[in-house]
Amino acid sequence: MSYPIRLPWLLLISAAIFSADRWTKTWVADHITIGGAIPVFPGVLRITHWLNEGAAFSMFADSASPHTVRIALIVFTCVAALAVLIAMVRLGNRITLTTIALAMILGGALGNVHDRVEYGSVIDFIEVHIFSYHWPDFNVADSAIVTGACLLLLDSLLPKPERVSPSEASS
Q1: Residue in 21, 115, 137, 142 annotated catalytic
Q2: Tens digit of pLDDT for each residue in 37-80?
Q3: Which of 101, 137, 140, 156 is exposed most, by the fewest CB atoms within 10 A?
Q4: What are the DSSP E strand ranges found in the chain?
């Protein structure tokens, strides 16, 4: 197996997402009190400060054993991040929609697992309202994970070019 020559670029994408996630969460923690908010587009978008001790959309946050939930989320995220990294190494010879999606997912997963390990919870701060619907608060890492997953889905739906075998190419 040869060294995946595009892997450093993919890891740079992951590092950029991780850095943006850390910077935004640090800024929110330093400038907005827990439960506070700054309106960006009144009635549509606010920057808030919430601590999420559960999984996506605060699932399991009210568990009777929050320590067990925290450990389970850390282990699950680390295993998933490792699987994504292995896939990136295997596919890292090319920059494709799939490898970019994997890089985004890895950066987001590492951003959220860092918070769970370091602080015991994840800072969520983007609050969106669309008409009467309120989307649960989220962060940069969550956005990268969801965007990466959507890109993987899109890539799976796009038609793939047919591969020409070497014998067909010479004829």
Answers
A1: 142
A2: 999 999 999 999 999 887 765 566 566 677 888 899 999 999 99
A3: 156
A4: 37-41, 45-52, 122-130, 133-138
